Amino acid sequence: xxxxxxxxxxxxxxGTYSQAVRTGSTVYLSGQIALIPxxxxxxxxxxxxxxxxxxxxxxxVCEAAGGSLQDxxxxxxxxxxxxxxxxxxxxxxxxxxxxxxxxAAVGVKELPKGTxxxxxxxxxxxxx
Length: 128
What we know:
The chain is α+β, with helices and mostly antiparallel strands. Helices cover 23% and strands 31% of the residues. The longest helix is centred in the middle third of the chain and has 18 residues. The relative contact order is 0.24.
């Protein structure tokens, strides 16, 4: 059985997808970019500001599903410039505690809305 997870505290889907889908104890989190939920505009400024916004968006979806960022067991990070990898690591340390999730960081040519960072993940909820 699939349950769609939706919250207005994260950007609304800009395509044919759900913010997240729960099946049993597993929640599949769709990719989040640095859209500001209230305006649906990309966060401007340094990439660090967009990385923070992506984590805030992911956190909102995790909470809507009944969990938190700490429940993410697999995180995928997509960057248009892998030279920002160290910045991602610095900021990620502000949102996660050990044990850290399994993770991949992938360099890509481009991302939706012309942004430079996107993340998706898989969350495990032991209460379900």
